[in-house]
Predict the 3D structure of the following.
Amino acid sequence: MKKKWIIGGSIAGGVLLLLAAAVILFFANQFHIEMEMKGEDVTLEYGTAYEDAGAEAYLRGKLFGNKTLAVTTENGVDTAKIGSYTVTYTASQWKWKGEAKRTVTVVDTQKPTLTLKGDAAITLTKGTKFEDPGYTAEDGYDGPLTAAVTGEVKTDTVGEYKLTYTAADSSGNTATAQRTVTVKAPAVKKPATVSDSNTVVPGNKTIYLTFDDGPGPYTAQLLDVLKKYGVKATFFVTNKPSYNHLIARMAAEGHAVGIHTASHDYKKIYASEDAFFADQQIMQDIITAQTGSPTKLMRFPGGSSNMVSSFNKGIMTRLTAAVTERGMRYFDWNVDSNDAGGASTSSEVAANIKKGIQSSRYANVLQHDIKKFSVNAVEEVIQWALANGYTFKALDETSPTCHHGVNN
Ligand SMILES: [Zn+2]
């Protein structure tokens, strides 16, 4: 029994020794997990399929062991959405863990598409309005885009203008397009052709609608009405920088343009002949710039019969002679709409004009296009006059002068 125990004891001792040796060997082996990622980090265009190249894992030891391990892949890549994604590979054995990461970047490198609406080259007449026909900009990733438009079209100055459209997507890819807008001088019609669109019936009375003190905020509306009926009129203009571009339109649409002085300041213009002509020249230069040629038509502020100039004795006598000497034709009027006097409504203005027209051989009608109610009366007057066989004409150098008597 004793011996057996000793034998048994030595067997147990041997087993223990072996176990101890195995444990020491096991720890001395220094296990680790080696991850082998296939391929590099990936950059790919949105919308394309991502195929993961995968990874392999091995359990390795210093003294023994070389085991292939199962790899778990965590892949959250969404190629429909640009951004940076991480693919994580893990493997484990006992207490050892291995991990590898791959960065997948989904990008948009495609330019947006940018298409101009309308023509890439547009030509328009000075004084007309430019409305940009616009564009369509679309990005495959971001959808519709708003483009930045740089450049400016000065419709009051003849020249060539470039508009640049730039559309950028959220990734900074850009597309550009360019439009050229050419502003050309209006073809100035000669006075002889001004009334071409009106039928002149011999023996019928002619009406010369004249508008003083503009251009102003209602002048464009007035030009629209005149255009609607093919009626030509005469504008005695002053310097209104914000509206001067309409002078080009007047000429382009066949109306006559005359000088009414730049400032319309009685004290200033009637102070001396020099002062008058200096002021008149300013307006002549503006008209020339707008229409392409100077005018010979004019109307004195207050008319040639004015007494407002009486602070300078004899000035109107001298000026009426001087302007004629310079080759200008001045016009007064014989039908007063009274829009600068007693009339304050469109119906009063229209009534005054109709009455005046019927009691004159021809009618040179005075109105002011800076007065809205007066401008609003024009359509009624035109409809009435056309229905009654009258003819409308713009003034020219051969028109009846219609002079008042000079009182100063
Ligand atoms: Zn005036």
Observations:
- The pocket of zinc ion is lined by residues 212-213, 260, 264, 301 (CB under 6 Å).
- The radius of gyration is 46 Å.
